[in-house]
Amino acid sequence: MNRQKSSFYFDEMGGGGTIRPPYSGLDSWHRDMPVDIRNFKQHEAEALFRRIGITFAVYGEGGDPERLIPFDMFPRVFTAGEWRKLERGIKQRASALNAFLADVYDRGEIIRAGRIPADLVYRNEAFEPAVLGFRPPRGVFSHIVGIDLVRTGPDQFYVLEDNCRTPSGVSYMLENREIMMRMFPELFLQNRIAPVDGYSSLLKKTLASVAPRKCETDPRVVILTPGHFNSAYYEHTFLADMMGVELVEGQDLFVEGDFVYMKTTEGPKKVDVIYRRLDDAFIDPLCFRPDSMLGVPGLMSVYRSGGVSICSAPGAGVADDKAIYVYVPEMIRFYLGEEPILENVPTWQCGKEDDCKYVLSHLPELVVKEVHGSGGYGMLVGPKADASQIEAFRAKIEENPSNYIAQPTLALSTCPTFVEEGIAPRHVDLRPYCLVGEKIELVPGGLTRVALTEGSLVVNSSQGGGVKDTWVLAE
């Protein structure tokens, strides 16, 4: 098989005919695999994903919106030493983000100290006055933190963005591993790979650890879903099954007195912890959007009185806004008294006059993002854009500068990916899932997303990206 090379990016498997040690156990595996066997295995993987029902929805498109996320069989590999650095940096960041949330919904000391502009927080559309002055159990606002990371060199990792509300994709991390173990059991006999299958029990333990004080018995945890039309509904059902908890919609819950109850055939059952997978605006029509049919009337009143825990807390999104992202290193210094282990990508804030001038004069070189954007939408990749796209984005920035940030076009690392000709380098990122409760924990691995189109830097599934199994080699 031919292996296409890229001379401009760090190739995680190695370049110039050398194989990096983490990938040594995979070199002969892919070389010795006949093309017909590889094609058969790829079809087998797709059939397994479809049989299990792992699909996602793409809104705003005609026809059937349910799609399979493309799965690439070539694993991504980290050494135990690489993972130790990432783990320390992720835990540090999750701790600082939660300290920030606890602070800005209380005294706002970081703002009083002049470390973060007040307007960025208090006028942020994700800031929720409804939780001002409220301290959730253990002071945790964001219980599942997804940190998006990119690699640019052997020892260089950057945080691309933080996801503090309801980060999705963990079901793919778990199912990718399950399918790889089913299709290539010999790889797991020949390589010492740290397991990820403890995630669901760790998640349940984390959620139970933040039950309210009014909880007198073993906490009852439920997952609150917007319903089967949601793009991540498969994941909601998957996690409920894995944890052995009920998957509920708003109509399945009701408030009575100081508590929330779930309707069952055996009568009402008190609910202690709600892992919500719907946006703040839809949680409670009496507090947020009055037209919401997805939430539970009166839920916020019970939450504020300490009768139920909501994970992650309403208002947690103010910590993962792209304008706030710039200040996370300062949060780490302010709250933890430490230097950041993982660096931010250098970022220009278009709301600042000098930054905006620089961005407008360098648009062909930069990646520009909406501060509230997600999913790879609302962004400009300057080096890949034509003149008309650049000028259209210039007009958007000039009209509302504070709605945009800009970053250099990073040389994202590449990972071997199966293509028709054999394997070829494709750009990847990584989303580990950090759980914050009584302890801060994460399983060794995460969701590797891969830009399947040659040369593309956009890994999002809604933009044609795929996924890979992520290995952390055991000591």
Automatic annotation (TrEMBL):
InterPro entries: ATP-dep_Glu-Cys_Ligase-2, CP_ATPgrasp_2, UCP005522. It comes from the Bacteria. The lineage of its organism: Bacteria, Pseudomonadati, Pseudomonadota, Alphaproteobacteria, Rhodobacterales. This is Uncharacterized conserved protein, circularly permuted ATPgrasp superfamily. Pfam families: CP_ATPgrasp_2. Residues 75-451 form the Circularly permuted ATP-grasp type domain. It comes from Poseidonocella pacifica.
